[in-house]
Structure formats: C-alpha cells, structure tokens
TrEMBL record, chain B:
Residues 32-417 form the Major facilitator superfamily (MFS) profile domain. This is MFS transporter. It is found in: Cell membrane. It comes from Streptomyces alanosinicus. The chain crosses the membrane at residues 165-185, 191-211, 242-261, 273-290, 302-323, 329-351, 372-389, 395-412. It is a multi-pass membrane protein. Pfam families: MFS_1 (PF07690).
Amino acid sequence: MTVRSRILILVAAVAVLAVVGGAAVLHASARADRRNHTQAGGPRVTPGTVTLTGNGSMIFRNMAWGPHRDELTAVAAGDPSGPRTASGVKCLRFYAASGTGVCLQAVHGPVSDTYRALVLDDRLKVVHRYDVPGIPSRARVSPTGHFAAWTAFVGGDSYAGTNFSTRAAIVDTRSGRLIPTLEDFRIVKDGHPYQAADANFWGVTFARDDRTFYATLATRGSTYLVRGDLRARTVTTLHANVECPSLSPDGTRIAYKKRVEGLSKDAPWRLYVLDLRTMRETPLAERRSVDDQAVWRDARTVVYALPGDYGADLYQVPADGSGAPRRISTAAVSPAYIG
Amino acid sequence: MYVADSRASKPASADGAVRPVAGRRRAAIAPTVLALGTVSLVTDVSSEMVTAVLPLYLVTGLGLSPLGFGLLDGVYNGFSALVRLVGGHLADRGGGRHKWVAGVGYGISAVCKPLLLVAHSLTPIGLVLAADRTGKGLRTAPRDALISLSSTAENRGRAFGVHRAMDTAGALLGPLVAFLILRATVDGYDAVFTVSFCVAVVGVLVLVLFVPGGRRGDAGAVERPTLRGAVGLLRRRGLRRIAVCALLLGLATVSDSFVYLLLQRRLGVPDRWFALLPLGTAASFLLLAVPLGRLADRVGRWAVFVAGHGGLLVAYALLLTAWRGSALPYVVLALHGAFYAATDGVLMAAASDGVPEALRSSGLALVQTGQAMARFACSLLFGAAWTVWGDRAALAGAAVALAACALFSLTLRPKGTVPA
C-alpha cells in the first residue's frame, strides 16, 4: 500500500468517525430541550416564594422536567403529590431544620463542574459558602439549625482507577467555622484508640444537644455506626454494618441502610431501624435496596428516595417494621420537613 | 490523580526513533517513532476522557455508590504485571510480532469504550475496566520495543523522550475534551464514551497503517525467543543490574497521590486546587521529556536516570523542610515532572542496550514489571508508615531509602549503558 492510499484510508475513516462522534454529541445535547419541557401528567410547578419557616411543608429538590427542574420546591406535607412552589434556587442535595438550610450545588466552570455548599437562612439567602471537594452525596442540618454537615465523593481519578473515598465536613452555621473533614477527629474503636489511613466518614446526623452527632465510619472494608462529640473531637464506634444513619426526632433510634448478605453488589442494602438503648435491629417493610439517608417525617415514619422515571421518587414506610412502603411523591429527592 | 497516575502506571509508551542523516549532526525522528507517538497521544485522549468522567458517571449518571470499588485493585495489579510479561513474550516470538501484539492491546481497549454504554452495574463495569487495563498491559512492552528497535543506540533517549512527551500531551487533552462534551450536553456520558471509542479507533488505525510490521526471519535466526530465553535475560549482567536498580529505586518512589497529599498538607492547598496538582507534574514532564532524553543520549542514560531520582530526593527534602514559600508547589511539581522525564523513557532506553533485539520486548517487560511491582509495594509500605508514624516520618524514611538506593545504583552503574 502506498503512503498516499494509507493517508486516504485514514482521512476517510476519521471523517466517518467524526460523523459518529458528532451525532452522539448532538443527540446528547438535544436532551436539554426535552428536559426543559414539562412532562404531561407530571406535578404542577409554579414559581413562588419558599421559606424555611413555613408551616407543615416539605421542601425538596424538584426533579420533574420543565423550567423548574432541580430547584428547591415546597409542597404541603399533608399533600406531598399536590401542587409545587419552586424557589429558583438549584441544589443537588438539600436539608433544612429550624430555619437553616444547606444546599449542595454544582458550579459550572469553563471546563468542568466544581461543587459548593451553601448555608441558607430562612428566606434562602446565602449566609456562608464553602468549596466541596467532590461529588455531593449527603446533607444534614442539626435540629437546632446551629450545625450543618455534608459528604462528598472524592478521588477515583487515576487511570482506570477505582479508588474512591468520602469527605465529611461539619460547619457551625452561627460562626461559619468549618471542620473540613471528620478524619481529623480521634477514633475510639471497640474501646481503644484507632488510627487508619483508610478511615472514611459519611452520612452525618445530629442530636438536639448541639454536641452529639452520628455518622458512618468505614475502615478495612467494614462500616460502623459512630457517635461523635463535637467538643471533644472524638468519634466512638457503637455498632457494625450501619450506613447513612438518621436519628429519630426523640433521639432514641437510628434509621439506616444495612448491607445484607446475599444481595447483589449493585443493590446490597435494606432499610433498618436500630434502637440505641437495646441495640436491637428492626428490618423495615421496604423490600427494595435503598441507597439514601432516610428522613424522619415524624416519630413513626421514615421517608426515603428510590430511583424513578425522572431520577427519583419519594416513599414512606412505618419505622417499626410494620405496614408497607407507599410512594408519596414522584420526581423528588432530598426532602426536609418544615414546621 | 488521573494524569499523573496514568503515567506512573504506564512506564512505557511508544514514540520516535532517530536515524542519522548523512552529513547532519541532528538526525530526524524516525517515522515509526512519530507514528507510535501519535498512536499513544490519540489513545491517551480516548482513555483519559473516560477516566475523567467515570466517578461522576457512576455517582450521578448511574446512581451507584463507588465506595469499595477499588477493593480488587491489589489483586488486579498482580494480574496486570503477568499480562505485561505475557505481552512482552508473545511479541518476541515469531520474529517480532510487536506491532500485532500492541495492536491487539490497543484494540481491546478500544472495544471496551462502547461496552461502557451497555454496562450499567458495578460488576460489568469492573470487568470492562479490567479488560481495558489488560489491553494496556499487553501493548506497553511491545510498543516500547518498537520504539527501541526503530531508533539507533545513539538517539534512543531522544526517541523515548519524544514518545513520552506526545503520550503526556494526550493525557492532558483527554479530560479537557471529556468535560467540554459534558458541558455541551445534558448527562452526555454516552456521548463521551462514543467519542472516546471513535478516538480509540483512530489510534488503532494509525498503528495498523503507519507502523511497519516485524522483521520476519532475521531475528529468529540468531536466538530463538523462548520463555526460558526471556527468563535467562536476567543472567546477563547489564540487564540484571538495571532491573535490580529499577526495583530498588522503585521501592523508594512514593506514589504520586502521596506526593500531592503531602504538598496539600504542607501548604494547605484548598481542595478545589488539589485536582490541578497532577497537571503541574504533567506539564513539567511534557516540557522536559525531549531535552532530558537528548541529554541522556549525550552524557549517558544511567547518569540521567539516577540524577532524575536525585531530583525526586530534592523534592522530598523540600517537603520536609520548614520552607513554605509560595514557590514551593511549583518547584516540587517541576522536580516531580523532571523526575519522570529523566527516568520513564530513559530507563527503557537504558534497558534496551542490554537486551538482544530478538528478546527486546520481553526484556523491557521484565524491567517495567519489576519497577511497577516495587512501586506498588512502596505505596503499601508508605501508607502503613504514614498511619503508624505520621506523614513527615514516613517521607523522611522514604527519602533516606531513596538516597541509599540512588548511591547504590551509582556504584552499580551497568556496563554498556553509555553509548559511544
């Protein structure tokens, strides 16, 4: 084959491949138009004022297609599939309590996205702003509104590399002082001081005393429920195989996802409730794998997200293992109950 | 992070050879080397595109939890070393099938890209990534053997330098292309994988069309490449010394991620800038690969190889001192990139001198594998030392070990590594 014909073959092939690649990009960018159209039969969304002090409302990230996709949106807690009021504030993850909100959002840079955490006041005005080092995963605010926490996935960027870790941060929303990573806390595991380079934390949940929190600690392939002390800067392991803990309003129980033997690697979790006094585990009636940090709607009910047609839908299930799960809202994620 | 680790895990890539032109002091880069450099550049654009978006894709695209995904990395590192040795050996058999073994390696990686479009859960994705790395392991040694065989002893350092520079350029461009596609689309991971596949196919085509095949016959006549022959290479003093030194120095080479982590801790680099640190190393590597390759041709490859580790030692020392000037990250990253420029391709050029042509691929694979395993062992040891004694003590230990290994390597200086 002459050099000329080789070059011709290459040029022709590049032309064909460029058309294929270009078509793929065009197809993917046309998605933007589709998603900006309100879907038929979806929830009704109107722009309006959303506050974090309203009575009996649920605020969440609206995932329904249309102009208000990804915005913080309010519905009446008593009618969660009813009409929605969109705030105009876009968040990937959200939580709120006592008039303080935390919103994890993407910042679109010229090349790649970066992420930040916003601490919001009751009118959704930004009070503090922090860089988040990776893809946002969990967000929580203490019942008093005085502390907020978030978790992000970091790493996983070596060539075909598959090592991920998490970074959990806690901020005092009054002073703005940030604890960038819980890895700086002293770990007490099974009664002894414990050090490990592979320690990862995620899924912080707060008690009412502005001092105690709970979270997941992962090390050497196992996960633990830890109780943290913000003043002593320690975390103490309490129970094994607990992820994404969520403390009940009365502070006596933890709803969490438990890795159950024999389930598929992609859907390994079941929802459980742990009684902190007896350490007894109760499986909940949801039979599907839940990858979410549940929210206590009241002392008897937990709410969580499962994958749905437009990203995620919200479900609720009794916290005592009885009853059956029920879908309460479609195209919604990251709920917080206000008032 | 991706750019730097990609380099660390691929001690070899392919590029140009230099053929003396009558009456001229400076020879041109051999077309084969340029072709292989192009293949590597294009392939790295393709693979780094995927690497850059993979975490985001798993978490936001598929809603999978990526934790624990890396549990099998240790096991896979061992398998990958084996694949590399097999690739080296297969390429030598039959009188130089380097091009075709390398082609199969590039081909496997290319086919993996569209498979990502249909793999939607962790196990299939893990298998696709493993296949991708198998392709990478297969092609590395034959490609470096091709570079080495298509350059002359006098210009080999420069040939490898040109190749490494092109390779790194691809690794820098890949993430940029991927993020531009994500920016132009909505959840455009499918577009990223499709474009990545198209780019990978171009790489394979360039290899098939513009890299000449093996020289059938002439190689096999001298020494038939057998598995025993390949292992027997270690009985040659020159190669054995190079392999031992590469192994020892590898044992004292702290992995890139630890260097960036130390830099971040020392300076309090904000998390948002953390991802940019590997770009500093890559830029320095890109700029210095050719000059240092030429220097190695002139003053001796072994000298430059050991001096590169000296540069790394200075970087460690700077991280250990109390100096916190604003220039520190630039100096450390420049030295870190210079370390790669002075050692990565230069080691292959140096090792080439001690291996007969018929076993070139096996010999290079042997050295690369030894070095990669040593670096992996060092990561494990360093991580453990960090946990027990803290980061400064661990780094001080690594610095002492590196100094000792470098001194030892200087005294062991293999024969025949200095051309003419």
